[in-house]
Automatic annotation (TrEMBL):
It catalyses: (4aS,6R)-4a-hydroxy-L-erythro-5,6,7,8-tetrahydrobiopterin = (6R)-L-erythro-6,7-dihydrobiopterin + H2O. CDD domains: PCD_DCoH_subfamily_b. This is Putative pterin-4-alpha-carbinolamine dehydratase. One of its GO terms (molecular function) is 4-alpha-hydroxytetrahydrobiopterin dehydratase activity. The keyword Lyase applies. Belongs to the pterin-4-alpha-carbinolamine dehydratase family. GO terms for biological process: tetrahydrobiopterin biosynthetic process. It comes from the Bacteria. Its EC number is 4.2.1.96.
């Protein structure tokens, strides 16, 4: 299903509500770096997000080093940011705090 890329205005409005996320240099993705008390808790976070990603059919680009997780969200089908990225970022903020 084709999904629309956010306009500049929509992107700015969305980012204003996602202060923990940074816009990539090329404007096509948002990134958040997280740190957890342990590797086990970092991986548990990734597991919860993984199940949501499957449910939403929207998957993060992410990496994990011990207690840290870096999450990058972009919509490949739109060639940039879409509402799916905003919704997933909100979900992640809800899980990670
Ligand atoms: N995840 N981040 C992201 N971007 C996509 O475009 C995307 C996805 N997960 C699944 C998906 N697209 C499928 O809908 C398409 O590959 C068919």
């Amino acid at each position: 299903m084709a999904i629309a890329r956010l306009t500049e205005e929509e992107r700015a409005a969305a980012l204003a509500e996602l202060p923990l996320w940074r816009l990539s240099a090329d404007g096509t993705a948002i990134e958040r770096r997280l740190r957890f008390p342990s590797f086990a808790q970092a991986f548990a976070f990734m597991t919860r997000v993984a199940f949501e990603a499957e449910r939403a059919d929207h998957h993060p680009e992410w990496s994990n080093v011990y207690d840290r997780v870096t999450v990058v969200l972009t919509t490949h089908d739109a060639g940039g940011l879409s509402t799916r990225d905003v919704e997933m970022a909100r979900f992640i903020d809800g899980v990670a705090g």
